[in-house]
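ok trying this again, last paste got cut off
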Amino acid sequence: MRILVTGSSGHLGEALVRVLGAQGYEVIGLDLLPSRYTNLVGSIVDRDFVRHAVRGAEAVLHTATLHKPHVGSHRRQDFVDTNITGTLNLLEEAVAAGVGRFVFTSTTSTFGRALTPRPGAPAAWITEDVRPVPRNIYGTTKVAAEDLCELVQRDQDLPCVILRTSRFFPEGDDRDEVRAEYDDTNVKVNELLYRRVDIQDVVNAHLAAVDRAGAIGFGRYIVSGSTPFTPGDLAELRADAPSVVRRYFPDVDQLYESRRWRIFPTIERVYVNTKARAELGWTPQYDFRAALNRLSAGQDTRSALAIAVGAKGYHPVPTGPYTAER
């Protein structure tokens, strides 16, 4: 199978090209930036370039995007051009070229303000049924791109699967106070409880989406690490998250104390991946329990793929935690 991967010089794009190539697929990497994983250098805003790129492809994995870290450095029009027009170009040219399936990488940032419950309310239980309330131009354009996928699937019968991925980037947290108070690995392991996913699991979700797209037709799925929590935990998670975590993981204190780590005092939202696991046949491996087991064994909590891909950065010069490529 010939697969076009957009954004192939980025975190997820590179990971997809690595894994797909190793599994014997014919992979074409497309990106604005050259890299060893990119065959075609150009912009998805350029319709002629996109037409050439999709020729002969049987599937498109569309990860190219302007991200949240670009909100402070790019115009809103840039987001519209890349995230909306670029996606439309790919969708329409995929239809014209007879591509059989289209997987769009979206984000849990689409939920935006729906992720923050009012003071005193329980933590938010975030499933695909929650209505997005975008917080910025990034979320707004990703929601619009999702809607384009739905429109094209409905009108032109191109199977489209949307994967709303939670955090998998390796950079430090974008909040100064969090970086000041917590070790970076401590933050990322904590987030596996409710808002993070390892890039290996994200890649596996994309492979499952390619496999199931024809049968699904159209679907939106949350792709995040499996949470141990239930709706019955939501009030206590908001008030005293450590108590809830200790009930599920009695060994957490021993593993954390030796590293001077801490559980976050409160958790305000929980991403739920039940639909993705059921309908995509996807089984994420790198959850909080797995991280604790790896800590106990003296191993890195990340997958080998996450370590290999490393950090990419979002700007040509260091900008807060969003570093230049290294």
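PB: full thing came through this time. The mean pLDDT is 94.
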